[in-house]
Structure formats: structure tokens, C-alpha cells
Amino acid sequence: MLFRSQRRLGCQGRTILEGRDIGTVVFPDADVKFFLTASAEVRARRRLAELEREGGGNVPSFEEIHAQIQSRDAADSGREVAPLRQAPDAILIDTSRLSLDEVVELLVKKVHERLGSG
Q1: pTM for the structure as a whole
Q2: Helix, strand, or coil (residue 10)
Q3: How far apart are the first and last CA of the chain?
């Protein structure tokens, strides 16, 4: 399984991993866990902007992207194996109104707070 490889790699030193089940399935005992969220509308706008920047022609509409995001969220939350959910000890961060730099700054601050190094 993929999670065995992820665990092996993650145990080789200080590691930052991202994924929908990293903090609940792959590394449930991680020192610091985050659960990042944003509204489906914001995520659809971000994805649309990303696709438009990349160019390449056939960019789906906002409505199509929004529907895809909602569908994926429902499928991931309802799946039997490793469903999308916040770990009880994860720090919830809603990124809907934050820039990428603000998110990174907040994550670093929270890591320092949690580990007592800042």
C-alpha cells in the first residue's frame, strides 16, 4: 500500500507531508497536524485561476469546477477506506480569506507554538 511507502519516507527525518489522510491514517501520531479547508466556491475560483494561468485551451467553467470539487469532497468524505476527516488533534485553518503567504506564515507560527520553539 502507498501509506507504507509514505511512512517509510516520513520517518527519515524532519518531514512535511500533505494529503487528505496523512494525519489520520498515515501519520496519526505526528507532532503537528493541520486540517486546511476553504469553501468550495473559493477553491473553485482558485482552481479556475490556476487553469487560466496555465493556458492550454479548454478551461472548464467555474460551475463545472465547482461541481467537480463538491463531488470529490463527497466521495472522499464518504469512502470506506481512509475517509476525509479532521484528526481530533489537528489544527483547523480556514484558508478562504488568506493568501498563500499568509497561510504559510500561520502554519509556521502554529508549528513553533506547538513544538515550543517560537
Answers
A1: 0.82
A2: helix
A3: 37
Alpha helices in 19-83 (DSSP H): 40-54, 62-78
H/E stretch holding 91 reads strand 91-94
Contact (Cβ atoms closer than 8 angstroms) between residue 59 and residue 115: no
CA angle, 95 then 2 then 87, to 5°: 40
93, 103 Cβ separation under 8 angstroms: yes
Of residues 51, 73, 69, the one with CA closest to residue 60: 51
Please state, in angstroms and rounded to a whole number, the distance separating the CA atoms of residues 74 and 47.
Answer: 18
Quick: pLDDT tens for 75-90: 999 988 888 899 999 9
HSE-CB at 68 with a 13 A cutoff on CA atoms is 11
Element (H, E) at 98: none
